[in-house]
Design goal:
alpha/beta, ABC transporter transmembrane region fold, Rossmann fold, 2 domains, six-stranded mixed sheet, four-stranded antiparallel sheet, elongated, ATP binding, cell membrane
Length: 595
């Protein structure tokens, strides 16, 4: 069972600090020394070659004033042209290398994040919500990808150019360099005002987008229930509220950035005025040449473009930085070392296993009252038990714990002699398979979909599994049989066929214990009858726990347990419980009258 304690874990995925994210980037760059070195060298060379024409222009001014020979001026002009061409070439190569380095870093980050999510305990994913997970591996990756294409090359190249140009001003005259540096306090004040406010604001924006995604996804996943209970307006209002929150934050971010740009323009004005005043004073006292005094403001003006580029892309860079901290945070989440289905996970030995639940108590994080209270259950090896109860009785929670999802507050779940608390999720899944009503078809050939639970299965074994669940007929009628594309962009399958595919995966998985949580709930009455027969066939010879959606499922089980407010209040066979005249008998009578 997962070692993640959901009782104390935060209800959102981890978000790391900017410093930790920077260390992750630096560590990955050290793993690619050749590409990293080439990127830095070409960027520095490109910046130096862009500054050189301005310095040479100052030399031209001095040459004209001093009456230099025309050939000298022509030579300087040729050097200016050559520097411009070489600078453009170096900048182009630098931009390509920065993009390539960024793409490699993004690929490693994306792969690591997906690996971390796949290794994350199921209970943790359910706790934080799928919206947060999807926004990180989807939206945040998209934001970083855009930043790598736009902001990162601009900020890095412009930053190097600013350093080279500043050194060039000090090279002309240290007093001119100090005059230009006089603008630094204004820039620093602008950044000091901006940086502490920007990162939290962008993180707040990303969280709002995740909440909007969660609201939208929760409505889509339960669309049939939403329609059945006429909750469309409530969900529409919830999505609208979250969408307006995202909109308001977007406007707030735009206004905030506009105020920052105004402060940046003020710093530019201060620096240019200081250089012109100091340059005039130096020229009047013959402390500097006209060429030096002319080149200094041109160099500082040359900084306007890279500084402006940094400022105007800082918005995108900050968004990318916020997304980076969220993705690197995912890498720091507690994850299993082994994934479900890894070759290192041994298959369960053949044979049926009993299931024993003793003193099981569970409460969700932040909840005062337990969902389950001191539950005791036993399912004999190869036997079946149906859980029956009203909504909120704790059936799904108990089924999840028996499947090894979540950490109980007290008590234990044993499969045979093995306590699930001693297993990671991959080990638990080798013993217990769980199938819920949220079945899914993966995009690609049907055979690949089926082999997810048995990678080495032959076509004959796939057909046998399909035959077991009653799906061989319609699969044979598909255009390309097992090679037919299903899922998004492929053959459309109704809910009954999707459930049969999930049951076929269950057959191929060969776990000795099966948990079925309302797995036929989405099918219509005709499809449900067909699926119930498929369920019986798929679970033959296995220890099975049903969360009964229909009482016909409960009738088919060897024994029935009735849950109420997290406690088992009745246990027995169908006939025994009907004769008892208790809760189950009342449910049975109401169901028969309703049907």
């Amino acid at each position: 069972m997962s070692t993640t304690d959901t009782r104390v874990a935060p209800a959102t995925l981890r978000t790391t600090t900017g410093r930790e994210a920077g260390r992750w980037v630096a560590a990955r760059c050290r793993e690619m020394p050749g590409l990293t070195t080439a990127t830095v060298l070409t960027t520095v060379a490109g910046a130096a070659l862009q500054v050189l024409p301005v310095l040479l222009l100052g030399r031209v001014v001095d040459g004209v004033v001093g009456g230099e020979d025309r050939s000298v001026l022509v030579t300087i002009g040729v050097l200016i042209g050559a520097a411009a061409l070489l600078g453009a070439a170096a900048t182009a190569v630098s931009t390509y290398l920065i993009g390539r380095l960024g793409a490699d870093l993004l690929a490693r980050l994306r792969e690591g994040a997906v690996r971390a999510v796949l290794g994350m305990p199921s209970a943790r994913i359910e706790q934080v919500g799928r919206g947060d997970v999807l926004s990180r591996v989807g939206d945040d990756v998209a934001v970083i990808s855009k930043g790598i294409r736009t902001a990162v090359p601009t900020v890095f190249s412009a930053g190097v150019l600013v350093v080279i140009a500043t050194l060039g001003m000090f090279g002309l005259d240290w007093r001119l360099g100090l005059a230009g540096a006089g603008a630094l306090p204004a820039y620093a004040l602008a950044l000091r005002w901006y940086l502490p406010r920007s990162a939290p604001l962008y993180r707040k924006q990303r969280v709002a987008q995740a909440d909007r995604a969660q609201a939208f996804i929760s409505g889509l996943n339960g669309i049939d229930t939403v329609r059945a209970y006429r909750l469309e307006n409530a969900f529409r209002e919830k999505v609208t509220t979250e969408s307006w929150r995202v909109r308001e934050l977007g406007i707030e971010v735009f206004r905030f950035f506009g105020r920052f740009v105004g402060r940046e323009n003020r710093a530019e004005f201060i620096g240019l005025v200081l250089i012109l005043v100091v340059g005039y004073a130096l020229l009047e006292t013959d402390a500097a040449s006209l060429g030096e005094v002319s080149a200094a403001p041109l160099l500082f003006h040359r900084l306007f473009t890279p500084l402006g580029a940094i400022m105007f892309t800082f918005d995108e860079a900050q968004k990318s930085g916020a997304s980076l901290t969220r993705l690197v945070g995912v890498l720091g989440e507690s994850a299993e070392e082994r994934l479900v289905g890894d070759e290192s996970v041994p298959a369960a030995r053949a044979g049926a296993y009993p299931v024993t639940v003793e003193g099981l108590t569970f409460r969700y994080p932040g909840s005062e009252e337990p969902v389950l209270r001191d539950v005791d259950l036993t399912i004999p090896a190869g036997g079946s038990l149906a859980l029956v109860g009203a909504t909120g009785a704790g059936k799904t929670t108990l089924a999840a714990l028996i499947a090894g999802i979540g950490t109980p507050e007290a008590g234990s779940v044993r499969i045979g002699t093995t306590d699930l608390a001693d297993l990671d999720e991959a080990g638990a899944r080798a013993l217990v398979s769980i199938l819920t009503q949220e079945t899914h078809v993966f995009s690609g050939p049907l055979a690949d979909d089926l082999r997810l639970s048995a990678p080495g299965a032959s076509d004959a074994e796939l057909r046998e599994a399909l035959r077991t669940v009653g799906a061989e007929g319609w699969v044979s009628a598909l255009p390309d049989g097992l090679d037919t594309l299903v899922g998004e962009g492929g053959e459309r399958l109704d809910v009954t066929k999707v459930a049969q595919i999930a049951l076929a995966r269950l057959v191929l998985g060969r776990a000795p214990v099966v948990v079925l949580d309302e797995s036929t709930a989405e099918a219509g009455s005709e499809g449900a009858a067909e699926l119930e027969r498929a369920v019986v066939a798929a679970c033959a010879g296995r220890t099975t726990l049903f969360v009964a959606h229909r009482l016909t499922q409960a009738m088919a089980a060897d024994r029935i347990a009735v849950l109420d407010a997290g406690r088992v209040v009745e246990q027995g066979t169908h006939e025994e419980l009907v004769a008892l005249g208790g809760r189950y008998a009342r449910l049975w009578r109401a169901w028969r009258e309703g049907s």
